[in-house]
Amino acid sequence: MEDNFRKPVRGTAEWAVATVDCGIGCPHGCRYCYARAKLVDRLGLVAPAAWSTFRIDEEAVRRKHPLYPGQVMFPAHHDIVPENLAACCAVLSSLLAAGNRVLVVSKPHPDCIETLCRELWRFREQLLFRFTITARDERILHLWEPRAPGYDERRAALAQAFGHGFATSVSVEPMLDGGDVVAMVQDLLPLVSHSIWIGKMNRVGERVSCDSPAMAREIARIERQQDDARIREIYRQLGDLPIIRWKESIKTVLGLAPAAAPGLDV
Ligand code: SF4
Fold first, then answer.
1. What InterPro entries does this protein map onto (predicted)?
2. CATH at 55
């Protein structure tokens, strides 16, 4: 196929050639949750009231995984939480034992990460942790990600993984506090060995329910802090750091070339 007709590489495809999950539902309650929008609102696979409880897919846990032709992301449509830690650990062991390079993406609970570091130690050369850390301000985090770990817990989990010698990375997507993102990156830099990805909140109007005047003000703030002028200013301040990577939503604003193929993670 001609290059001009290739589908743009965006979302999880920027990071992985395949995604793996082991159940459905997530207790973290993020207001912008793309997984909920897809699995509940679009596909109707689970009732809205049931989304906040993780339900294990036993068959997915037992599945033997092939060697994928590139980096695999786990999980993609739920998170790793105390309730599903054993199942997540089993799936990760299976993926890694098949020889895969695995990207673990999470709003991390330190206890879960400590267990994964211990259980997956022998696979550490194949594993990259990427923790989603969207803001430092607890008021903002509580509003947007009400039941996910706070900033200090996520930073502590990052320090644990880094300290145990695993490759570490951060995803600031969606960027929830554009005014603080440069300072937050500086705070996290010493704990990151691989990359810090920065991306906008996509499809805000479609995915985020605006159910109060306070929420309307928050949505307006997010949109203001990720307008083209602010994105260019963030790029001006961070663009020289080789560890920073820009998601497709930001590359488009800056006129940077999109990823050439899925799963390159660059
Ligand atoms: S942690 Fe991920 S899957 Fe869970 S609610 Fe938040 S965005 Fe959705």
1. MJ0683-like
2. 3.20.20
